[in-house]
Amino acid sequence: MSESFIRPLAGLRRADADEFGGKSANLGELQAAGIPVPPGFALRAAAFRSFVEEAGLEGTIAAATANAGSRDVGAIGAASKAIGEAMRFAPLPDRVRVELREHYEELARTTHDERPPVAVRSSALGEDSAAASHAGQQESFLWVRGIEEVCDAVRECWVSLYTPQAIGYRARLESETAPAMSVTVQSMVDAEVSGVLFTCNPVSGDPSMVGINASWGLGMAVVSGEVTPDDYLVSKVTGETVRRSVSSKSVEYVPGPAGRGTVRVDVEERRRDQPCLGDEELAELVDVARRIERHFRSHQDVEWAIERGRALPDSVHVLQSRPVTTLPEREQAISESAMSLVMSTFGAKRK
Amino acid sequence: MKQRRRSFQDPFHVAAPPGAEGWESMYPAYLLFGEELQERDEQKFWFFDQMHNPEPLYPFDLMMPESWLVSLNQYTTRVWNLPTALGIEHRIVNGYLYLSPNVIDDPAMIAEREPVFLERARYYFEHWDEIYATWKQKMEALIAEITELPVPDLPEYEPDELMLDDDRNTAFYDVLDAYGRTLRTADLMWQHHFELLLLGYGAYVTFSDFCKSSLPDIPEQHIAQMVAGIDVLLFKPDAELRRLAKLAVDTGVDGAFAEGRSPEEIDAELEQSDTGRRWLEELEQIKDPWFNMATGDGLYHYYRSWYDDPSIAYASVVGHVRALKAGEQVLRPSDELARERDRLAQGYGALLDEQTRKTFDELLGLSRMVFPYVEEHKFFCDYWFLTRWWNKVREFGALLAKHGFLDDAEDVFQLGRHEVSTALDELLLTWATGGIPLGPSHWPPIVARRKELLARLGDWTPPPALGATPESITDPMSIMLWGITTQRVQEWAHADAGEGRLTGAAASPGVVEGPARVVVGVEEIAAVRDGDVLVCPITSPAWAPIFSNVSAVVTDIGGVMSHAAIVCREYGLPAVVGTGRATAEISTGQTIRVDGTSGVVTILDA
Fold first, then answer.
1. pTM for the full predicted model
2. pLDDT tens by residue, B317-329
3. Mean pLDDT to the nearest integer, B447-467
4. Do A346 and B362 touch (CB under 8 A)?
């Protein structure tokens, strides 16, 4: 057991996805490609297994899930509750705690903040990745400060593997393998504006467009659907904004008191109907989108944030990137020669 | 084309506009909806050819659609053997031209035609440039022929030369020969016109469809910009006028080009100084060939060349001089346009995967190869040839007028070409016999009545379609040349657009609000004021010079590849084309908003 449980994001590559999850692996790839990703580290799935083992939770888990037939909602709920309670009372393994402290302190040094705010996010692996997304359980804890809070947030991520939805989903799949989860800890961006972008038009699939949704504050408001974000469609070729629909954004999430946690507040009247991105921000986001697309050689769905109080281009941060899987099937005739396409315009059969 | 329930107006039940009863007498019976074919014709879909004939057809001008349709149709049906298309039939309703395509759906027939089409079309694409070079020579020869063709007068006595020279014919024969040759040159011109046109459009449309399939959000104008030529012949006349405007400013004679002056007044002032005379000499230099531009799209006799009517050319110089004095750059930024064209092609190409990119590049190459023809044929055929041809017809009008058959040479256009032939026959007969012709009492009342009829018909608004609503439009010609698509037909069927709002194709981006100036004919161009939004049936590139004055353009018909759409993009003017009814819905003076990015026109004050 000489391998450490934690590695900095900067060192992760695609091949590390098996142990660190696709999210962390992608962030490592982005950093290596020079895309502005906030610094951070990732906790490998083995840390979770070690936690279960050292705390002797296997029995509890096995007993609780054994009763959870795929359709028995009551049994699933009881199992989730039992496992959650057991996990919350169990200490983190010493090695996990030591490594977390080490890396958190390193982050404190690089960010010149004694208790740097971080985002702690779950990153389920393999089959569980689908389970987690199916259940809507991509746990994220934002504005977490101090090592104790980080440890608690990590534990809560692990607990989220046993939400009733996740247990039910695995039961339906009749999954034999034990669930596994990695955790990403990333320096927090004080977001003035955040949102998601697609490196293509997500509706038509047009690769010459970047689709951008944006709203005030942290990205939760957009992701959770609490506000209708501003919607932009920008041409990669000319940089023109071909569609700009500005909506009324009445709420936003901001850091809580003393910079801990998040609170939902009303957006003051005068900012609500203002577009939250100008031409310069759009241009910078399109540039980032193009670099990400070039790196992954596929269309990506990207979470981003623009930091308060900093100037472009340094204010733009990429928080997450994953492949777009929902593109519409486009009618393609690419296997045909130009001439046979011309002939088909005149009603000649395509060869 | 599959037919569905009849939903457009029945072509057999369209009433004549008040005062235009009997309009049918102006046209041959085979072009009218007749009961012999009622069962068949009312089951067909007929669309109004507003693109070529927005105005009622003068009896003589009918020769144009008759000649170009037979030429187009023989190419689709008998020459290229398009696998799924026969020709396009035409009928006249209340003086307006309606068309209906005949499609092929018999698989055996399609299979029989396809190999012939493929072989012939490929040959043309493979030899395009040399065929086009020869084509230009053929057209120049034809233009020379119509220009030089003499229309002799009828002498009291034939001259001695007739007896001494074996090559001389009598005036009787020469007049008939000249008239026959005049008609024949028009047919020949249309034959040349369609020799390359279908394949040229087809290559472009294929590239456009391919772009829209691979890049669903690509603006139509970017497709056009990637293909458009930089040194296109059609831009030359205006480019020369821009150069002359700059010369006027540089040599200090720009004072002559005051707003509102007629060409004669400008000439008169220029004549008074050496530099002014030098400017006029310079103008003389460019007239051949650039003054062969027409004041309109060529298919009506009243579109004259700039030789005949230089007002557009002079108005253009006036506009350019004003722009120059305001410190604007008027010379066309060719380098910038070329860079933009390559930047777009590179930018879009780079987004495609390797195989798609290869097809994209090939189709773009093919489109650029055919584009000079697609752009330039209009100059040779519709402008240069036709303005001379109409003038030749005027010479026959003058001959008939001289002998009392017509009150005025221009009245010749009120007679059909066969009627003119009949009138000439009688004139020659009575000239030879020394008898008394009936023509002078027969034709003038007919002409007078027809002028009235045409005026009444001009007040009528033709519906966009008649007869059966097709389930889908499959005829490649209707789609390519007229933009008649399944979607367009459904829009007509539902006629859904709200009050005060028109939609069309977004042909040139930008948003402008301004006073509308409805211009349905070239004679109204002088009324256009600075900042007006030009609203017209179809924007002819021949009007290009006045585009320096207008702030935006709206048309009834045309696609984003219409020549005018290209000109608007050149001038950076917002344009919405193909709205179907802008000239009917919008009145001069109304404030309208033109959104050339989304293709919407809004009437702001009703």
1. 0.79
2. 999 999 999 988 8
3. 94
4. no
pLDDT at A132 over 60: no
- Compute the residue count for chain B: 606
Same domain, A144 and A132: yes
| Contact call for A346 and B205, based on CB within 8 A | no
Q: Does B77 touch chain A (CB under 8 A)?
A: no
Same domain, A47 and A156: yes
- Domain shared by A123 and A63, yes or no: yes
Residues A125 and A214 in one domain: no
Q: How far apart are CA B158 and CA B407, in angstroms?
A: 26
Greater pLDDT, B484 or B279: B279
Mean of pLDDT values over B517-522? 82
What residues of chain B, 82 to 101, have a C-beta less than 8 Å from chain A?
82-85
> Does residue A70 lie in a domain region?
yes
One-character DSSP codes across B282-296: HHHHHHHHHTT-BSS
Tally of structural domains, chain A: 2
In a domain, A88, yes or no: yes
* ipTM, two decimals: 0.78
Task: State whether the Cα torsion A213-A216-A221-A227 is positive or negative.
Answer: negative
Give mean pLDDT, residues B134-151: 97
Q: Does domain B498-603 have CATH number 3.50.30.10?
A: yes
Please tell me the predicted confidence (pLDDT) of residue B567: 73
pLDDT of residue B2: 42
Confirm or reject contact between B511 and chain A (CB < 8 A): no
Same domain, A182 and A197: no
Contact between chains at A346 and B117 (C-beta distance less than 8 A) = yes
pLDDT recorded at residue B564: 64
Q: Are residues A143 and A22 both part of a single domain?
A: yes
Residue B40 DSSP SS3:
helix
Which of A137, A35, A159 has the alpha carbon at shortest distance from A85?
A: A159
pLDDT band for position A284 (cuts 50, 70, 90): very high
Range of the domain at A174: 6-187
Classify residue A347: in a domain, yes or no: no
The total of other beta-carbon atoms located within 10 Å of residue B375's CB is: 21
Say whether both A231 and A127 belong to one domain: no
Within 8 A of B213 by CB-CB distance, chain A residues are 330-333
What proportion of chain A, given as a percentage, has pLDDT over 70? Answer: 88
Contacts of residue A350 in chain B, CB cutoff 8 Å? none
CATH number of the domain that A23 lies in?
3.30.1490.20
Instruction: Provide the shortest C-alpha distance from residue A245 to chain B (in Å).
Output: 14
C-beta of residue B287 within 8 angstroms of C-beta of residue B310: no
Q: Is A231 on the interface with B (CB under 8 A)?
A: no
Distance between CA atoms of residues A107 and A35, nearest Å = 19
* Same domain (yes/no): A101, A208: no
Contact A70, A175 (CB under 8 A): no
Q: Is residue A351 part of a domain?
A: no
Interface size between A and B, measured as CB pairs under 8 A: 109
